Amino acid sequence: MAFSIHILPSSDAIAALVLLGLGSFTKGLLSPLRTVPGPFLARFTRLWEIHAVRSRDFATYNIALHKKYGSIVRLAPNRYSLNDADAGKWILGHKTGLDKSNFYYPFGFVDTPNLFSETSNATHAKLRRPIAQVYSTTNLLHYEPFVDTCTAILIKRLDEYAREGKQLPVRELMQYYAFDVIGAITTGSRFGLLEENGDKSGIIEALDEGLDYSAIVGLIPVVHWWISKVVDLLGIKLSFIRMIDFINLHLNNRVSGRSKSPLGCQDFVDKMLQSEQDGKATRTHTFIACAQNIAAGSDTTAISLSSVIAHLCIYPEAMTKLRQELDEARKDGRLSDPATFQEAQKLPYLQAVIYEALRVHPAVGVPLTRVVGKAGAHLAGQYFPPGTEVGVNAWVIHNNEHIFGPDASQFRPERWLSEDSAERAALERNFLSFGIGPRTCIGKNISLLEMLKVIPQIVMGFDFELQRDERSGERYTWRTSFFTKQSFCCLVRKRSR
């Protein structure tokens, strides 16, 4: 009997639970957001969004939710997705940009936030300032030899697929390429994934596991601290520690003089160590820059390169126009082999293809969520009280027909070549593939450098033919956890002229 008394709730406990439930119910009834539509369970629990992320492709599902419910959709009791151009600019913009929500907390260590996981814009600015210069457009020219070396290996690999007639898993190979490039640019050392045609070290798998964890735990971020403490207590070595070991190895080798950049060019480590000597940065800043590159630099570029290849296959008229521009530039001496960054920047259709591929398939497929400040906010005709989580998803905004036109779901590079300056400005304001405002992706220029240099080499040298998946019958599919990673194969042939 004594045991039963201890496990049964007391009358005081029952009363407390009832009062708590009534308090939550009353708060919901009185909330200015009580009329915001959305899935029924999303009004009461965050578990609905967790289930949606795990069971569906959330990038496309988020679009469907807005088509059903309108410009504002409830995703959780205090979390909302918005499909509105003005709201997106206000949430993310330079002048009015809000601090990040705690969704980003699990994307970093508990006690050491990084550029991505830091929620405060003010603190983020302090972290970013000492390393921003190594990402500048001026420094991009120093990284070109690293890109060219990896591109030459990629071309050899594509030659092999063409000779052997094997189906090419495009996104996987593009990730090997992007990973080797970012490794070379960052530490002067490739990971060797292109040579191996695989991830024998398991570093990509480790990063995928970390992203899957963060994408789910970010929806209930309070548990991240507890999970981290349990992992530490049990002495479990997480898989992404391999990435940290890789960075520390190269940093220590460079500092001790055991290694140097192999191409006679300054890589990220060289530039950051020089900043340390000049008193402009610390070793922590150097580590953050290297980790940021490797953790995020391959996925985003690989997804974007894959989108270019797939959509040029699906829309052959765009491939024809791009090849015409590239062939004429090569014939006129305006395009080297390999292409230089400055040459590629002067090719308008090439740039339009890249921006359109990034628009129709952004690398990130979840809302970029922020927290409404003390003054509250009026967004999309709705008042949001302080502390509300609001966000915009690039997939949703990029499919908004009021912004990108009735063909918003179609791949049409010509939209970026409009002579109407106001129309072009509206497209650029709502282009969210790299984010906008103070939290714009710091590696944006590096990703564009890789794409502008490698796409001419691929397009001018090879033909690609999308293949249907035997089970699904689809030619081009993707799946979202945080990134929207594609799954598709192509037959590759040497280009027929």
Which keywords apply here?
497 residues; alpha+beta; Cytochrome p450; 4-stranded mixed β-sheet; 3-stranded antiparallel β-sheet; 9% strand; globular; disordered N terminus
Number of separate helices:
21
User: What name does CATH use for the topology?
Assistant: Cytochrome p450
- What structural category characterises the helix and strand content? alpha+beta
Instruction: Please identify the oligomeric state.
Output: single chain
Q: What value does the average pLDDT take? A: 90
The percentage helix is 40-55%
Q: How are the strands ordered across the major sheet?
A: 1-2-7-4
Unreliable segments of 5+ consecutive residues? 1-9
* CATH H-level superfamily: Cytochrome P450
Total beta-strand segments: 11
What topology emerges from the helices and strands here?
Elements: H1 2-7, H2 11-30, H3 47-55, H4 58-69, E1 72-76, E2 79-82, H5 85-92, H6 121-128, H7 137-164, E3 167-169, H8 170-187, H9 193-196, H10 203-217, H11 222-234, H12 241-256, H13 268-277, H14 283-314, H15 316-331, H16 341-345, H17 348-360, E4 368-371, E5 377-379, E6 382-384, E7 389-392, H18 394-398, H19 401-404, H20 421-429, H21 444-461, E8 462-467, E9 477-480, E10 484-487, E11 489-494
Parallel strand pairs: 2-7
Antiparallel strand pairs: 1-2, 3-11, 4-7, 5-6, 8-11, 9-10
Helix pairs in contact: 7-8, 7-21, 8-14, 12-14, 13-14, 14-15, 14-17, 14-21
